[in-house]
Write a structure and sequence with these properties.
about 450 residues, alpha/beta, seven-stranded mixed sheet, six-stranded mixed sheet, 15 helices, 21 strands
Amino acid sequence: MQIKELLTNNGNTVHFVGIGGVSMSALAEVCLSRGLSVRGSDMREGVYTERLHALGVDVIIGHRAGNVEGADVVIRTSAIKDDNPEISRARELGIPVLERAEAWGIIMENFREVVCVSGTHGKTSTTAMMTCIALAADRDPEVMIGADMREIGGVLRISDGDLFIAEACEYCDSFLNFKPTVAIVLNVEEDHLDYFSGIDDIIRSFSKFVSGTKAGGVVVVNADDENAMSAVKLSGKSFVTFGLSEDADVTARNLEFTDGFPSFTLVYKGEELVKIRLSVLGEHNVKNALAASAAALRMGIAPEIIAKALAAFTGVGRRMEYKGSYNGAKIYDDYAHHPSEVETTLNAVRRAHEGRIICVFQPHTYTRTAALKEGFAKALSLADKVILADIYAAREKNTIGITSAAIGELMQNAVCVSGFDAIVSSLESDVRDGDFVLTMGAGDIYKVGEMLCNKK
């Protein structure tokens, strides 16, 4: 039986190794909705395994060879390697093993239109904006996104329509499994250096992704980003540009900020189309909105619908998410984990807030911290005070002996504090009325803000 046929609505059994992550659990739900028998395993329980349990999915805690017995196909996350006992046993039994992105690529083949949002930064927010626009236009999209989105009640929306909207991550070249009809390239910077050899390697990867755009499709690229433009030009595909430069095909004219919230006139090839007011902070979200608008315009969606949808969009989970207050200070959380993201987010906060900014930053992965520590130090210096938490290991082991102190040693306004309880204690004694406290990072640092808010 062909691999593609194993993921069709025919009652086959799919076993997920590492089922508890955002994308894997969403993929499991999609397979379940298509009549497949779904089960899986992970090392621990979590919010997504609990959701799957509620849907009737058998989730086994712990990876053991016997877990894959009786499966027709095994799907694994990129963190699961060949030496995993379940993968080894599947190979012995001749059970096909797919990477998560391969399976998503197969699912996407069933849709007439596929919008894939790629880039080093901004994928989740732009995917969410694109989703809001498609919903407002009654396009009934199926959606896969990397953070909770209020408008779809989570990270997944299943539909009977012919439009699929998805984030497209470059890590491990996973987005090369996708064949979009609309490929969005937001920006291209150095990241994931545990996989890529450097920026030239990353540009080549994005170029290959763009090259996979289906005939008759469209590429939407950031005119202000030299690396993104290089990747698209290298692909040989035709493209539409967006950006803040006047020569971009889709741009923002008369850009203004009120308390940090942007408004502008949407312009397409010199023609002023509609006034747009955003309900999310920062210039970076202007660029995200322009990317989504460029794609929507090429898909035939009216400017007025775009403007209405973007005005109603208030963000997604862990992207400048308001958590509460403590001692008169506002507590927010953000997913920024790359120097450019940190700088962009802190600049947006500075534009909107006049008081003291306290940033609690949790570096994400040892390799990223080592490679980009100077950039982190420079970006974090935009805050008035920085507390550096321990590095969040994610998929890595600390074979290079690096700690958060590698960043702190390059700064004048930072202290390293180990453990969330100690960080919260430090904040309790320091935070005052008028402060803006921002927890930041791709790990579990959001818990610090929640712990502080509960100290009321």
